[in-house]
Structure formats: C-alpha cells, structure tokens
Amino acid sequence: MLAWLAQGPSNFPGGSEDLESLLSAFYVLFGAGFLVGTLGHLFDSKTLRAAGIALIFIGTAVFFVAVVRFD
C-alpha cells in the first residue's frame, strides 16, 4: 500500500515534477509516521511513538509547502 501511495497521482495540470515529488514525499512520510507510531504503541516504546509523530508533522509541513508553492 505504501508503494502505491508513494506513486501519487500523475495527472497534475502543467505536468510539474516538483509537485509530484513533494506529494510523494508527503505520502511516504505520512504513511511511515503512522506505521512507526503504531509500532511504538505495540512495543510500548515512547521513542517510536515520538518518531512517528515527528514524521507525521514533517509530512504535513511538506504538504503545506506543496500547496503554497503550487497554489
């Protein structure tokens, strides 16, 4: 599923490869953050939970950059 999300949509107006790469980074970071956070809950590890939350926040920041840059 993560590989499918990393591909992202390929029919953006203007064919901007920068937007595709930013959205692919968002998909990967967001999915990895949830995966790492879930593993942190399963293994009761505060470090993994914090890393998962950090990945989700970084992915969200990448998404906002993509939205602002490519309006």
Description:
The chain is mostly helical. It has 3 helices and no strands. Helix 2 packs antiparallel against helix 3.
Produce the secondary structure layout:
Blueprint: H1 2-7, H2 17-42, H3 46-69
Helix pairs in contact: 2-3
State the low-pLDDT regions, or none.
Answer: none
Structural class: mainly alpha
Query: How would a textbook summarize the main sheet?
Result: none
The level of helicity is over 70%
Task: State the shape.
Answer: elongated
Mean pLDDT: 84
First and last CA, distance: 28 Å
The percent range for strand residues is under 5%
Short characterization:
This protein has 71 residues and is mainly α. Helix content is 79%, strand content 0%.
Keyphrases for this structure?
mainly alpha; 71 residues; 0% strand; single chain; elongated
